[in-house]
Specification:
71% of the residues lie in helices and 0% in strands. By secondary structure, it is an all-alpha fold. It has one domain. The relative contact order is 0.15. It is found in: Endoplasmic reticulum membrane.
């Protein structure tokens, strides 16, 4: 454990708490992509197949349970909560996310690090996580005006991936671990997807204005 990984975990956890706070506190899921949340559930389910058979540490186990449980809870709120579901903008949240699932699975079959089924699903989860934010970013660009909590949610989610990328770089120079190219390349792609959002987030923060994304 190093400072970058710890900060990344805190940032990831913060994004989840902010999203739950927005939904629970305002009884609204306006600006939130259900498709992105569904993709994250698929990511966690595929990655944590060994959830109860390979416990690295209590910390690791708790974090996995939190991310799986929170993602399922968010989907429940958006789909089934008697008030929250009414604010979901399904007409704007139309990104064909099943293409992302199919493409990521095809990549996992072609490029994985082991011949075990679990290794294929691990690679699939890494590829899918790299692009899972796309439906959310597209939804924000379509709606343009982004409320404060939604903007913070996406910011911390992007910061988590950037910090994890710094974690891999730090470990390369200090721990000399085996380089997992799937993780490295996917982290670069995922971080790059947030660059445009980070730019407009910083501009809005600097000018003390509401976050607006270009169409």
């Amino acid at each position: 454990m190093n400072i970058f990984r710890l900060a990344g975990d805190v940032s990831h956890l913060s994004s989840v708490l902010i999203l739950l706070l927005k939904i629970y506190g305002t009884k609204s899921c306006s600006g939130i992509s259900l498709k992105t949340q569904e993709l994250y559930v698929v990511v966690f389910m595929a990655r944590y197949l060994d959830l109860f058979t390979n416990c690295v540490s209590r910390y690791n186990l708790v974090m996995k349970l939190v991310f799986v449980g929170s993602s399922v809870s968010i989907i429940w709120y958006i789909r089934l909560h008697p008030i929250v579901w009414k604010s979901y903008d399904g007409e704007q949240d139309t990104f064909p996310h099943y293409f992302l699932i199919a493409g990521s699975f095809a990549m996992a079959i072609l490029y994985h690090e082991g011949f075990l089924l679990q290794e294929v699903f691990w690679a699939f989860s890494i590829y899918l996580e790299a692009v899972a934010i796309l439906p959310q970013l597209v939804l924000l660009q379509r709606s343009r005006n982004v409320d404060n909590l939604t903007g913070q949610y996406v910011f911390f989610l992007g910061a988590y991936r950037g910090l994890y990328l710094m974690n891999w770089i730090y470990r390369y120079f200090n721990d000399k671990p085996y380089i997992r190219w799937i993780t490295w390349s996917s982290s670069f792609v995922q971080t790059a997807l947030y660059v445009d959002f980070f730019y407009y987030y910083f501009i809005s923060w600097k000018n003390n204005e509401k976050l607006q994304l270009p169409a």
